[in-house]
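Usage

Read records sequentially. Each one opens with the input sequence:
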Amino acid sequence: MSKTALITGATKGIGKAVSVRLLKEGMDVIMTYSADDKTALSVFEELTVLYPGRVYLLKADISDLNSIETIASFLNEHQLTLKAIVFNAGLTDRSDFQFIEPENWLRVFTANVHFPVFLLQKLYSHIEPQASIVFTGSLMAIEPHSVSLAYGITKAAVHALVKNLVKFFVEKQVRVNAVAPGFVDTEWQKTKSAEIRDNINRKIALGRFCTPEELTDVYWLLINNNYMNGEVVVCDGAYNYK
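and closes with the structure output:
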């Protein structure tokens, strides 16, 4: 029987790279996305050609808790159980501190914290024994910064979730871990100016951004290694080493 993974935010950046990696490792993949239909369909068609019958595509907005029922219904319809769940999708709010709106603050918390908690609650019976749950945390949960207060705080909550959720999945021997990436060369990061990127690179011991493909090694470790549990693995190239 094929092993199936659910990956949120799976059609771009880190999520896409993890999807490809898991397909290469022999897993079937359910790829969720929120809004960009054109990109999602293009990626789905591309991967379906390479991995026929092993890729599913589902539109599910993590900022809307109603999407939890959408995902649960999809699993029921296709009679799928999950060997891995990767929470990759996330939201941020880059408003200056003095202009943060409660509505936007709550939206980031819904997407980054509330959605995964209540999705796991809803999908509990669909999660196979000895399965793996991997969150995407962030270096910004560890290194305070001024770009997005909501993002840093919610990712710190994600790191705390990993430690606490372990206790709730002991009975099923389901492992819960997280990857905390530093700066990864995704589409969004590539829009930064050369000056900003150079300034970041100077703070990284390895002198460069991580590639999404390099990062998938960490996700695969946490999914594949049966003893990794309750860990937040930082992959930042030694940021702020000076």
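Summary fields computed downstream for this record:
- The first strand starts at residue 4 and ends at 7.
- The helical segments are 13-24, 37-50, 67-78, 102-123, 149-168, 194-203, 212-224.
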